[in-house]
Amino acid sequence: MTDVDYCVIGGGFAGLTAALRLKQAGRTVALLEARDRLGGRTFTETRADGSWIDRGGAWIGPGQERIRALMQDYGVPSYKQYTDGEAMMLVEGKQYRYTGTIPWSMSPWVAMNLGAALLDLGHLCKSIPLDAPWTAEQADRWDRITLAHWLNTHVVSKAAHELLETAIAGAYTSAASEVSLLFALYQMASGGGPGFVLGIEDGAQDSRPVGGMGAIYRPMAAELGDAVHLARPVKRIQQDADGVTVFSGKTTVRARRVIVAVPLAIASQIRYEPLLPVDRSFLHQRMPSGAIIKISFIYDEPFWRDDGLSGQSAAPGSPATITIDACTDTGRPGVLCVIVEGPIARRIGQLDPAERRRTILDALADRFGDKARTPADCIEQDWSAERYSGGGMLSHAPTGVLTQFGHTLRTPCGRIHWAGTESSAVMCGWVDGAVRSGERAADEVLEQDMVTASGSPANDRGAHRGNP
């Protein structure tokens, strides 16, 4: 048995940050990661030629100060996402080239619908209290309807509807009919509104770390040293009046408190003794992840740039739904990233790998020409098939979940504390949100133990079944 001050479960950015802050505070910590690698829903692969591919989360944007603080700590610079040239939209068999966020080259009717819908969503987002979205004035009404319902009743143009559903629901890697409107508004509001979520320059995909996300999480792990334990899936957490015991195969950790920093669907696979409070247990059951496949096609050079294209494209319903230039800071080799989400990802994920690649390359050739058909290499990551991710980059809330169970997202359950991007009131769904959640959870456990050490009773309500 390993005896430490604190145990952290999960080696993504939330868990790594929590463990790092605790160690920096002079505490002993054990971090248990189920995979044989770190990074969680980020995953940087370094190639033989020194180039790198981010197989998961990759981008950073304005306002994401906490991930940038880590980059500064470890001397990791950033570089701007390539946006020179025209982007493409493919709707109803027609191709439109444009610059900026809205494809004004489409019909005025479609463009006006898009612009009006984004303005409406931005206005609604401003009414969401980020710390407690379930207390918004219209929370009950918005949590009874789906994002699909709102789009159906507010966006008249079919083309505009398809584009918005692809752009917004894609963040949740699920169909718009699966996502509560309240959750969609909250998630967008946590980043500053739909303009940030959908934007490239000065938006959520403004920049990337040089070296990929691995350039950040690897030195974090190095600083933690032998506190990190890989291939340790946690099976059971048992808490008592004096501490917690965490069971992971042959490894057992005894600690004062534990921080669980894994996706909600994965947290539900852990056995808790005593049982978690009912509302927290139900939250685990009701916030699933969606489907996402991220495929990086590697070419000798980014030929689309020479053709006056940015590499960014969107085609609702296509097996290559979204593309983006994913080159490193040097621009060589050329990397064109295809992101497929939701029902389409589930569908093409069932294809034979060779057929899936052929289908996607056909779609790319229609968009970028025959050069797209002959990549030098292809790296595919199906997050839906990741045992310890449970699906896409963000767990989402269907209707009724936030208003009923959202209050448990951050509330400790006795000596069990929670981290993960879904629990962050700011930048929920981004790597920055994961970092913020890890810092919050670390502060929580340190504060609780300071209260205990001072002789005041610690607030460990919620450790037993049925407590709120």
UniProtKB/TrEMBL annotation:
Residues 13-446 form the Amine oxidase domain. Gene3D superfamilies: FAD/NAD(P)-binding domain. Its cofactor is FAD. SUPFAM superfamilies: FAD-linked reductases, C-terminal domain, FAD/NAD(P)-binding domain. GO terms for molecular function: oxidoreductase activity. Residues 449-468 are annotated as: Disordered. InterPro entries: Amino_oxidase (IPR002937), FAD/NAD-bd_sf (IPR036188), Flavin_amine_oxidase (IPR001613), Flavin_MAO (IPR050703). Belongs to the flavin monoamine oxidase family. This is Monoamine oxidase. It comes from Nocardia jinanensis.
